[in-house]
Automatic annotation (TrEMBL):
Pfam families found in the cross-reference section: Calx-beta, CBM_11, Glyco_hydro_3, Glyco_hydro_3_C
Sample GO molecular function, one term: beta-glucosidase activity
UniProt-listed Enzyme Commission number(s): 3.2.1.21
Source species: Streptomyces griseoruber
Identification of the protein by name: beta-glucosidase
Length: 1000
């Protein structure tokens, strides 16, 4: 007998003997999804087909349809091989052009799987609603390969859960409707490679009412003031909003919690009935009264059990919580220190450990874990956003997390953090500023302050009180993929831009943090991350990021620590250590990861500098420390870390931390110090009084006023490197030919850390591209991205070229990146500049090598990553604003020169640090005589403004002289003059400029 027939016969015989045979007879016939006999091709959208995917080129599995004698159904099975390091799997999507399928008549989906008994988990996903299979809601579950040979895996639809970590769309209805299904996907295990075989995917069974009907409550936690009453709303919901066919009953009753019945509340019991025919959305309420006494108390809980018949019950038991009251730490009139001391004295070790724990919001096993583990903080990593990605959804999401803290004894609020490194860059529609490298080019501390204010206002309006910014690294090698996160290569420049801290936080003493437009700032990455040695990284394929910083003690103090002294003086609330290692010459330690350097965190930062905020680790950074996990926790906490970012390991971390303290390997006083620092900032932020989002400023997110600040920042960040014949500014009457890959790409223009971690090319967020900005001037414009359109008849060409987005070590030179323009960009420059006068704009996070192309280019502009406001670039191109930007880093002639920085003994760049032609005013005349007069004026200047004015005039004289013939002899003193200007040594700066003039 053929195996298929045997299986069918066996199944039929078993069914006849089964006590459920009568019910099963009424089940609809199974509906095939995949037989793998060749009826569904290997293809992808918009056609119907089976296709693979993965995190990189090696991760998609290799699929084939194989003839198998042991096939459970038919002659063929789907089989494949895989070896996945990131993530990978395969999908069957229905045709996007055809109607979706209706699976609602069935109980679930099943298929045959050939097991290996290796205990690995395989994720199975179905696609519900939306436009097509790649724009649908994803619902997921998994099964374990704990068997050998063929086994039929049956998965009821009730087992699927909405994916909270990733959705390809902005949310549809978060309901598994089953009436518009687009297919399924399988995610294969990572780690060791393997093979799989699958057959006979089909829908089975008869849907029961509990699958399409559910009972929900309007919240999981119901805080109530002592003596008040909580009202729990119980709602019946059905798929497709159809009335229920059968009655639904809900029996309820208060149960044992930490509150005492009769003393703290009046117990209630009863039954709610939803008769057959009840419409979806119908609600009933249960009222639970609490009782008042005169005692000060911690919060107390009252669970309300719900037993549901005829529908799916709520996922968790709702809890009424009588708010904590009368305790000193809740009294906002008391000094912060007294409130902190009172609360700390009441907390258990487990509660303290929870406060030191930060988890990624998408990694929560269950929302209730916030209370179960007394978590102190959540974060959104790059790209970890709510669906839809709107201000309202952010606030709603964070408030829902915050509500969970109400179910803890002391109701300590969460502090939620994001990387808003150039505006609220995680939020679609936010105002995206130039990256820090562009802000450094502005040389405008007041503007840096204003960008911080706009960022803080937009971040806080979405319910986020904490920003992992600013980055105070001093970038010393442009091969580093984080170069654009730095204000520049000179610590004096970085220090001057730290006005952004006051923009974010307000007053240095923290008194403004409670305001609805301020956030807690983070100085990162302590210390030396910008000085890592090329080739020293041991993280994956990174070449320099997270590597080793090799310095003398003097270099460490002068270059890398200086910005942190300034940040501490400015009252920065938190500091984040670097992933990198520090190797200080002569200290005998060799390279040591910064997260383990107690001498730097406890000794220098907290001790010598007097930092009184708290130290937050970087993303899973303690995992990079040598030793086992207990050692990682012990070493990092004893080194001075106060809160540990453990995105996916919060359960392991809290358990390990408490074990280490219990064993005496971490002192309780170290824990108390850490928690005191954390609680202090939470109180300063006003979170105890106002834990929920204040969205009163949400209307200003992406507003014209905020975008005006970003537009000004974009304009001031533009650095005019070359301007032969005064080509710029352009005239509106000139016919302009625009070309280049970055002329009309908002994603490239905003760079990494925009909506997602790495950023992306294309239309990622609302804004104005450089091309659109040029067109808005009213000038006659023709655009040809690749410069393939005819090139005759134009007065001037504008070619916008540069980089595509990247972040961190992914952007390291040598990790698939270099500093050269792409072949397409080089071709566009060559074509346009050979045909007409041309201006080349370089949109990038770091200098790009121009080489022998510089000659034919009439005007060259370093545009950096200007953010969403391309109008700002057009403003300087057309003279609405003058070019005033200056290089925040040295522009090299070749990659072989790197690293190259101001102050180097050998210094021969293409353009020196501080270079930037201006179209502000006419250059003063007088040559050397004028320079000597300016040196004298700078020496006699009684104000900083007068001193800076003298240096600025001298700069313009020198730039005019050496613009076409920059040499090592002129570049070195010119760059040093800019450093002297930043440090207030005006007369010496002019004397250096005289030296540059003479060399030219």
């Amino acid at each position: 007998m053929p195996r298929t027939a045997l299986l069918v016969s066996t199944a039929l015989f078993a069914a006849l003997l089964s006590p459920t045979a009568v019910r099963a007879a009424a089940d609809p016939a199974p509906t095939p999804v995949d037989r793998f006999e060749g009826e569904v091709p290997f293809a992808s959208q918009p056609a119907e087909g089976i296709f693979t995917w993965g995190s990189d080129a090696d991760d998609p599995p290799a699929l084939r349809l194989a003839d198998r004698a042991d096939a459970p159904e038919g002659e063929r099975v789907l089989t494949g091989d895989y070896d996945i390091s990131g993530w990978g799997g395969f999908t069957h999507d229905y045709a996007a052009t055809g109607p979706a399928h209706d699976w609602s008549a069935h109980q679930g989906i099943r298929f045959w799987w050939q097991g290996h008994g290796d205990g690995r988990r395989i994720a199975f996903e179905i696609k519900d609603g939306g436009a097509h299979g790649e724009a649908s809601e994803l619902w997921t579950t998994s099964f374990t390969d704990d068997f050998t040979g063929w086994k039929r895996i049956e998965i009821p639809f009730a087992d699927f859960r909405y994916r909270t970590d990733y959705q390809p769309v902005g949310g549809i209805d978060h309901v598994l409707g089953l009436t518009q299904m687009w297919g399924y996907a399988v995610t294969l295990p990572t780690g060791a490679g393997g093979d799989f075989a699958m057959d006979g995917v089909e829908l089975y069974g008869r849907a029961d009412q509990s699958l399409r009907a559910s009972v929900t409550t309007d919240a999981a936690v119901y805080p109530v003031a002592e003596g008040g009453a909580a009202t729990v709303r119980v709602t019946l919901a059905t798929t497709g909003a159809a009335p229920v066919d059968e009655p639904v009953t809900v029996t309820y009753g208060t149960a044992d919690g930490t509150a005492e019945p009769g003393r703290d509340y009046t117990p209630v019991t009863g039954t709610l009935t939803f008769p057959a025919g009840t419409p979806s959305g119908t609600s009933r309420t249960v009222r639970i009264p609490t009782l008042r006494d005169r005692a000060a108390e911690a919060a107390e809980t009252i669970p309300l059990t719900l037993t549901v018949t005829g529908a799916k019950a709520p996922a968790e038991t709702p809890q009424v919580v009588i708010d904590a009251h009368g305790l000193p730490y809740l009294n906002s009139k008391l000094p912060v220190k007294r409130r902190v001391a009172d609360l700390l004295s009441r907390m258990s070790l487990a509660e303290k450990a929870g406060q030191m724990t930060q988890a990624e919001r998408g990694a929560l096993t269950a929302p209730g874990d916030i209370a179960a583990y007394d978590l102190g903080s959540l974060l959104s990593g790059g790209g970890s956003t709510p669906t839809p990605n709107t201000p309202e959804a952010w606030a709603k999401m964070i408030d829902a997390f915050q509500l969970r803290t109400r179910a803890t004894r002391f109701q300590i609020p969460l502090i939620y953090g994001v990387d808003a490194v150039h505006g609220h860059n995680n939020l679609v529609g936010a105002t995206v500023m130039p990256h820090n490298i562009g802000i450094g080019a502005t040389r405008d501390p007041q503007l840096a302050h204003r960008t911080g204010e706009v960022t803080a206002a937009e971040v806080r309006a979405t319910g986020v009180p904490w920003d992992f910014a600013p980055c105070l690294c001093v970038t010393r090698d442009e091969r580093w993929g984080r170069s654009y996160e730095s204000f520049g290569e000179d610590p004096a420049l970085v220090e001057s831009m730290e006005t952004v801290i006051q923009g974010l936080q307000g007053a240095p003493d923290g008194r403004d943090l409670k305001d609805d437009d301020k956030v807690l700032a983070t100085a990162k990455h302590f210390v030396g991350d910008g000085g890592t040695t090329y080739g020293s990284s041991t993280t994956g394929s990174y070449t320099i990021d997270q590597g080793v910083t090799e310095v003398t003690r003097k270099q460490l103090e002068a270059v890398h620590l200086a910005p942190y002294r300034e940040a501490v003086d400015r009252g920065v609330g938190t500091v984040m250590p670097s992933y990198s290692s520090l190797d200080i010459a002569g200290d005998g330690q060799g390279p040591v990861k910064m997260h383990a350097r107690a001498d730097m965190i406890n000794g220098v930062l907290k001790g010598r500098m007097g930092f009184d905020g708290f130290v937050i680790s970087d993303w899973a950074a303690i995992d990079q420390l040598p030793g086992d996990y207990a050692s990682d926790v012990r070493t990092s906490v004893n080194a001075g870390l106060d809160m540990i970012m453990v995105p996916y390991a919060y359960q392991d971390f809290t358990r390990t931390l408490t074990d280490e303290v219990t064993a005496g390997r971490i002192a309780e006083r170290r824990i108390d110090d850490a928690v005191s620092r954390i609680l202090t900032q939470k109180i300063r932020l006003g979170l105890f009084e106002r834990p929920y989002a204040d969205t009163s400023g949400a209307a200003d997110i992406g507003s014209a006023a905020h975008r005006a600040v970003a537009r000004r920042a974009a304009a001031e960040s533009q650095v005019l490197l070359k301007n032969s014949g005064g080509l710029l500014p352009l005239k509106k009457t000139q016919k302009v030919y625009v070309a280049g890959s970055n002329a009309d790409d908002i994603g490239n223009q905003t760079g990494g850390w925009t909506v997602t971690w790495q950023g992306a090319s294309g239309n990622t967020t609302p804004g104005t591209t450089i091309l659109e900005g040029i067109r808005r001037t009213g000038a006659p414009v023709t655009y040809s991205k690749d410069a393939s359109a005819p090139l005759t008849g134009y007065d001037v060409g504008v070619v916008v070229v540069g980089e595509t987005p990247y972040a961190e070590g992914v952007g390291d030179v040598g990790n698939g990146n270099d500093l050269e323009l792409s072949p397409a960009d080089r071709a566009a420059v060559d074509r346009v500049c050979a045909a007409m006068k041309c201006a080349v704009l370089i949109v990038s996070g770091r200098p790009q090598l121009i080489g022998d192309r510089l000659g034919p280019i009439d005007a060259l502009v370093a545009s950096w990553l200007p953010g969403t406001e391309g109008d700002g670039v057009a403003d300087v191109l057309y003279g609405r604003r003058p070019f005033t930007g200056r290089l925040p880093v040295t522009w090299p002639r070749s990659e072989a020169q790197l690293p190259i920085n101001v102050g180097d003994p050998v210094y021969d760049p293409q353009y020196p640090y501080g270079w930037g032609l201006t179209t502000l005013t006419k250059t003063p005349g007088g040559g050397l005589a004028a320079l000597y007069r300016l040196a004298d004026a700078a020496g006699r200047a009684h104000t900083a403004q007068a001193g800076r004015s003298a240096v600025e005039q001298a700069r313009r004289i020198v730039e005019r002289r050496i613009a076409d013939r920059i040499t090592a002899a002129s570049a070195k003193p010119f760059a040093e003059a800019d450093h002297l200007l930043l440090t207030g040594r005006y007369a010496r700066a002019v004397r250096k400029l005289i030296e540059a003039y003479r060399a030219g």
